[in-house]
Amino acid sequence: MRNILIIDDDVCIGDMVEEVLTREGYSASRAYSGTEALLYLSGHRPDLILLDLMLPGLSGEELLPRIKDIPVIVVSAKADVSDKVDLLLGGAADYITKPFDTAELLARITVQLRKASASGNSAVLTFDAIRMDTSSRTVTVDEQPVKLTRTEYAILKLLMTNPSQVITRSVMLDRISEDTPDCVESSLKVHISNLRKKLKSINGKDYIEAVWGIGFKMNEDILTLS
């Protein structure tokens, strides 16, 4: 299911857009300020962002250049052509003016998601200071390269793709089996232990959390401390 992040401090508009998106089969996440959006993006990677400009704290214009590799549709009451041009040149994928027709918004979302899939924008995953480029199969922490084995890379990719979800051992083995047929249940714990040590050696953060008796997930407590 495609996830769309709605960044808007207007609760009524946000509720309306979320209802429309949910009805169309998308999952929707919410942020009510630029700062809250940055915190969310440090641990999650939505497929598309709907960005209002007039936000408390960090404005939409200030937030836009800090969003990387995710299509952004600006949704704003500002109708001046120069504003639209500046934002499109500054990284926005599209611009729609409030008030808008929901059918037009959905059409623009469909177009941008189609473009993102075709261009491979989903190649980069991020979580806090971790950056994984799946096209080059490289991982960095605080911009320092981390050398991972094939199995460690597959585990980290699975966890970063589902940062809020606890991945059970059986599901993990099943999902990574195509890339790492040598990984079995008896060796999984060792692979994860080695992965955690490599990531932690860069900045001291323990990025992977063991959920006792269930499995593993990304440690989202780190995001609140960053």
Q: What does this 3D model show about the protein?
A:
This protein has 226 residues and is an alpha/beta fold. It folds into two domains: 117 residues, 3-Layer(aba) Sandwich (Rossmann fold), CATH 3.40.50.2300; 102 residues, Winged helix-like DNA-binding domain superfamily/Winged helix DNA-binding domain (Arc Repressor Mutant, subunit A). Helices cover 42% and strands 21% of the residues. The protein is built from nine helices and twelve strands. The strands form three sheets. A five-stranded parallel sheet has the order 2-1-3-4-5, with helices on both faces. Helix 6 packs across helix 8. The longest helix is centred in the last third of the chain and has 19 residues. The two termini are 29 Å apart. The model has no long low-confidence stretch (mean pLDDT 87).
What is the gist of this entry?
With 226 residues, the chain is of the alpha/beta class. The protein has 9 helices and 12 strands. The longest helix is centred in the C-terminal third of the chain and has 19 residues.
The major beta sheet can be summarized as: 5 strands, parallel
* Helix coverage percent: 40-55%
Strand content: 15-25%
CATH class of the largest domain: Alpha Beta
Please tell me the total number of domains: 2
Structural class: alpha/beta
In the CATH hierarchy, what is the architecture of the largest domain at level 2? 3-Layer(aba) Sandwich
CATH topology of the largest domain: Rossmann fold
Spatial order of the strands forming the largest sheet: 2-1-3-4-5
Q: Give the overall shape.
A: elongated
Number of strands: 12
The whole-angstrom Rg is: 19 Å
CATH superfamily of the largest domain: Response regulator
